[in-house]
Amino acid sequence: MSELVTLLDAAHAAVSADPENEVLRLRFFERLADGEMVLLLEREAEGQSLEPKVFALEDGPVVLVFDREERLASFTGGIAPYAALPGRVIAGLLKGQGIGMGVNLGVAPSSMLLPPEAMDWLAETLEEAPEEVEARPEAFVAPTVPEAVIAALDGKLARAGGLAAAAVLAGVVYAGGRRGHLLAVLDAVDGAQAALARAMNEALVFSGVEAGELDVVFLASGDPAAAALAKVGLRFDLPAPERPAAAAAPGMDPSRPPKLR
Questions:
Q1: 261: which residues sit within 8 A by CB, 6+ positions away?
Q2: Which of 127, 159, 176 is the last residue of a domain?
Q3: pLDDT in tens, 195-217
Q4: d(Cα 187, Cα 75) in Å, to the nearest integer?
Q5: Would the pTM count as exceeding 0.90?
Q6: Long-range CB contacts (< 8 A, 24+ apart) of 147-154?
Q7: Is there a single domain that holds both residue 162 and residue 229?
Q8: What pLDDT is stored for residue 212 in this prediction?
Q9: Is residue 114 domain-shared with residue 162, that is, in the same domain?
Q10: Is 1 domain-assigned?
Q11: Residue 89 placed within a domain
């Protein structure tokens, strides 16, 4: 079994040590969804069509994924066809198929089987979209959200390099007296707003904080509201953008998800 400890290994170890901890379970599934997973295929992908290798186990059919190419090679004993896809894409492909997921089976500390119900739950959770609302802020104050929410936002924003320059979290008082929290995303790239809003919604969901609410707004860094937020808010600087791949692999373009055969 591989001795390399990955982020998925660490998340799995944490939940294994405290199986009743719902927050740790949510963090494991978030790591699985956000990570790039190597999906074992029956044969090489053809265009945007994939045919995962399905194994008929005693508990039902499963596909196999690994969080490192070396782990796939260790399992298969050599070269095998595969597709590198975000875990969220694989969950979406499996939704409603009655097929589970084997993760790093026999080759890593995070070796485990996830039933079809877990895949359905994950896919449905990731499909939840934030609602659009209109409200007029009257005042900004220092944020008072739980540390778990701050850590979740920091993690999501750290993986959104190149989509915006920064984000500022603050408490807000709206006209009419409603209070809440506002995350202002600064200088977002055109077309990235919907993806960023969804990612921030996921951060709240996977933080494990019940009845949490977070409003997201997109501002230019020179906007007067951005300056007002900066005086009391908590700032997150996003990393510089990574160089784009020369050609998009199946599933890496959100507008063209792969198709199962």
A1: 49, 50, 51
A2: 127
A3: 899 899 888 888 877 656 789 99
A4: 44
A5: no
A6: 148/23, 148/207, 148/208, 148/209, 149/203, 149/204, 149/207, 149/209, 149/212, 149/214, 150/234, 151/207, 152/30, 152/203, 152/204, 152/206, 152/207, 153/183, 153/200, 153/203, 153/236, 154/236
A7: yes
A8: 63
A9: no
A10: no
A11: yes
Residues 106 and 31 in one domain: yes
Here the tokens at position 100 are: 């589970």
Q: In the predicted model, is pLDDT for residue 138 greater than 80?
A: yes
Number of H helices, E strands in the chain: 8, 13
Q: What is the extent of the structural domain holding 141? A: 137-237
Are 64 and 175 within one domain? no
Residue at which a domain ends, from 104, 127, 150: 127
Say how many CA atoms lie within 13 Å of 122 toward its Cβ.
28
Which pLDDT value is given to residue 50? 87
Polymer length of the chain: 261
Domain assignment of residue 158, yes or no: yes
Buried (b) or exposed (e) across 64-94, using 16+ Cβ within 10 A? bbbbbeebbbbbbeeebbbbbbbbbbbbbbb
Q: Tell me if 196 sits within 8 A of 175, measured CB to CB.
A: no
